[in-house]
Specification:
This protein is an alpha/beta fold and about 350 residues long. It has 10 helices and 15 strands. This is D-ribose-binding periplasmic protein.
């Protein structure tokens, strides 16, 4: 039988012990570093790596959260970072270069250890990435690239040119080799805008009977696309199709055509694979889009950041192309918003 051990404390010693424990607890709490105040544009979601309080943080800086596709992109990166044990905070640049620069100021000052970055501008965002690199913070660009070699640690980019080559071929199949069409461009400072347009025109421009009667930026924005499309229809009411550089603009164009009573006559082509356009294809309102996979891109970027921080990996390819797929009535059953069905 194991003997019981009885401990008896004098009242004075007990009081001393209580005060000692209380003091140690106060010192321990006061020595813990508090995180910085979160920017009002940030989505803060944090998790500790371990019980020691040694937190490691990843910032997810997204060009805009005014588009569901980019919300999925940012949330997927953030959530994967959380799963890997990091604190993760998402920042919304609102397609504003000055807001983006302010986010980088805050992230660098707060000693974040990695940045998953969706730039606002291919040229204008380079300076921000350079500042992070100088501070020793790796930057992993997703979806949108910067025009600088070896500044970002890696850039994960959809194969926009090839995707729009396939879309251009399908455009010709659906519209025919004759007819007028218009194009809604994205942000002029974003390489995706031009890579998509170039891929599309590399096919469509071979057919002299297909004439682009208007081309105008709508900044990847649904509301602006609605306005631009309404204006185009006043001058060009005989169009057969509209090519849009993303799905948000495709939905804006559809609303304009619906209001003009032309939604059934004009074929609409988008790019992204957003949930509303995938459904609109199923409903025969939009003709086709190209599925780029925001969840896959974002998750891979978070895993790259983890490999960099936890495993010391440094030899990342500078540009990593991510495959895309044409989505149309012929294969719509294979897809859901932002990806393929499981």
């Amino acid at each position: 039988m194991i003997p019981r051990c009885h401990f008896y404390l004098s009242s004075s010693f007990a009081v001393f012990l209580v005060f000692t424990l209380l003091f140690a607890n106060v010192v321990g709490c006061s020595s813990h570093k508090a995180g910085p105040d979160h920017n009002t544009d940030a989505y803060a979601n944090e998790a500790q790596i371990d019980a020691t309080g040694d937190n490691r943080r990843i910032a997810v800086v997204i060009s805009t959260l005014n588009n569901p596709w980019f919300v999925v992109l940012g949330e997927s990166a953030r959530d994967r970072a959380l799963e890997l044990g990091y604190e993760a905070t998402m920042f919304d640049s609102q397609n504003d270069a000055s807001k983006e620069a302010a986010h980088f100021d805050n992230v660098i000052a707060a000693d974040y250890e990695a940045i998953i970055f969706n730039p606002t501008d291919a040229d204008g965002s380079v300076a921000n990435v350079k500042r992070a690199k100088k501070a020793g913070i790796p930057v992993f660009c997703i979806d949108r690239e910067i025009n600088s070699t070896d500044t970002a640690t890696a850039q994960l980019l959809s194969d926009n040119f090839s995707g729009c080559v396939e879309l251009g071929k399908y455009f010709v199949e659906q519209v025919g080799k004759k007819g007028n069409y218009v194009e809604l461009l994205g942000l002029v400072g974003d390489n995706n805008t031009w890579n998509r347009s170039k891929g599309f025109h590399s096919v469509v421009d071979r057919y002299e009977g297909l004439k682009m009667v208007a081309q105008q930026p709508a900044d990847f924005d649904r509301n602006k696309a609605l306005e631009v499309m309404e204006s185009m229809l006043q001058s060009h009411d005989d169009i057969s199709a509209v090519f849009c550089g993303n799905d948000a603009m495709a939905m804006g164009a559809y609303q304009a055509l619906l209001g003009a009573g032309k939604a059934a006559q004009v074929k609409i082509f988008g790019y992204d694979g957003s949930a509303d356009v995938v459904q609109a294809i199923a409903d025969e309102k939009i003709t086709a889009t190209v599925m780029q996979y925001p969840k896959l891109m974002a998750i891979e970027a978070a895993e790259f950041a983890h490999e960099y921080l936890a495993n010391g990996k440094r030899d990342f390819p500078q540009k990593i192309p991510v495959n895309v797929d044409l989505v149309s009535a012929e294969n719509i059953d294979e897809f859901v918003g932002f990806g393929k069905k499981n």
